[in-house]
From TrEMBL:
The keyword Cytoplasm applies. This is Rab proteins geranylgeranyltransferase component A 2. Residues 433-561 form the RAE1/2 domain. It holds the Pfam family RAE1_2_domI_C. Gene3D superfamilies: FAD/NAD(P)-binding domain, Guanine Nucleotide Dissociation Inhibitor, domain 1, Guanine Nucleotide Dissociation Inhibitor, domain 2. It is found in: Cytoplasm, Cytosol.
Amino acid sequence: SGLPESIIAAACARSGQRVLHVDSRNYYGGNWASFSFSGLLSWIKENQQKTGVIDECEDWRKLILENEEVISLSKKDKTIQHVEDFCFGDRDLAEDIQEAGALPKLPVFGASGAEGVAQESEKECPPVESAFPAVESQEPEKATGTEPAGATEGSNTEITSESESSHSTALGESTLELGKTGAAPLEISAQEPKKITYSQIVREGRRFNIDLVSKLLYSRGLLIDLLIKSNVSRYAEFKNATRILAFREGKVEQVPCSRADVFNSRQLTMVEKRMLMKFLTFCLDYEQHPDEYQDYENNTFAQFLRTRKLTPSLQHFVLHSIAMVSETDCSTLEGLQATKKFLQCLGRYGNTPFLFPLYGQGEIPQCFCRMCAVFGGIYCLRHSVQCLVVDKESGRCKAMVDHFGQRISANYFIVEDSYLSESICTNVCYRQISRAVLITDQSVLNTDSEQQVSILTVPPVDLGKPAVCVIELCSSTMTCMKDTYLVHLTCPSTKTAREDLEPIVQKLFNLNTEKDTENEELEKPRVLWAVYFNMRDSSGVEKNSYDGLPSNVYVCSGPDSALGNDCAVKQAETIFQEMFPTEEFCPPPPNPEDIIYDEDEIAPEDSGFSNSPETKPESPTEESSSGGSTAVKKEDNEE
């Protein structure tokens, strides 16, 4: 039930198909899932032990006919490797401590543990009226004893369609200016960070929603467009990424992106400000000026930047924090395209191009699962599949057999890559992603506001190695407890995750648990807990790379190493169009007032229900109240 499969399931159910969606895991999302702290510890233990699925029915082969053959599926998930977790406190003291309010509960739609923190979170994240945040006021926030950092009036409003939304970009009217020098500092900024123990983390474990995959949503990306078009956005809430950071000369500093940021920046000289604005303006419509870049098409983007009379600091900002591309492998055209995409996404919902879903990235697959269920889809967790049944004559897949020995027939089968056995994947060459998740006691760059969502790209130490993407989340994203930060590190793998990422962790954070440390280490955030693991990247694998798959079996990949979600959305739409070329992909549900009923199908007014299948779209806003996300109705004039 990862993101591509969930999108396909929702699209199929919306177009009137009967959908059965099964997952051998006991949670939604697969490798796109989010966990509470105790849930993540269980996931770590499970992947370190690598226990397989035990067959509950051994006589399922009796269901296979003479003119049929089987494609056995994998019993073990081999997508996660080299899992190592570290506690930088006294773990022994937390052995007998349980999560506050922890009760056995079945997996449900919504965020893990979201219900348990709803009341306490009101102070950190004020009630909102919509799914997507809007551009905030230019006025700096007033620091008071009761108002939380970043809580400004109207900070979340309804998302509008393209025709209604502001078309401003970084070079236009972006009005979100967080962390202005004129803002009064919060009282806590002058204090030392609170001492957080491992026991507290365990006790408050339900306040954590820790993603297995770390991504952000581009405000004009394919996933945001799909959420708006399908009206799935009402099932989730989002927060702006508030700042873009850079790591240069051993220090973390904020990167000015919008016009206001550039001209308010104290890091840049007036000459640098003019140079940067001139270059960003060129990048927005570089296609109209081919003579300025054609001679450098065969060069790298880094080489092209050197010809633009940009200072070394500006070249660093553009390459690593705006375009966010490789210094050695990215061509000039690719760099210009990446820079333009970044700039076009500015100003739609804030002064950065990115949004982050409250309660974690794992909410997004569940939103599409909810849409599928609303339109009649059936979901079964803890439900593994033994094999696919293939007709020898036609070569098409006819059915599947589950671990209970049930034979279930279908016309199309969508399978996530991790379910395929090694015999099918003999010719497949997988990439790997290195991941690390840290819980820290303070931000990598302290400012007046504690509630910051930051993205930082750390350039590689050695040429040829990948840069590391760092995303730091504050407690108002509902992903960690108060007075802590959740830090995600991601890069394409060259070695194990710990070997790839620990040098970056040591540069940015203090791993020393002893009191006697140097002043430089004291200034760094202290790591309280960390986990490293490698995740398989199956994106980009062509279907013909899999041996012996029938034509009506489609394979979805797991998460890729990119920052956005475009790969998953493209894959889902491609597979759906191959199955149903005449159907629209995820059309919006009809408005209740637009539904026309036949007279004989209208139920009596006092019955409270109707047998008409067209009434199904009525249920999302009512049903979603039981989940962890907030359902939000949209304006009539909204897309």
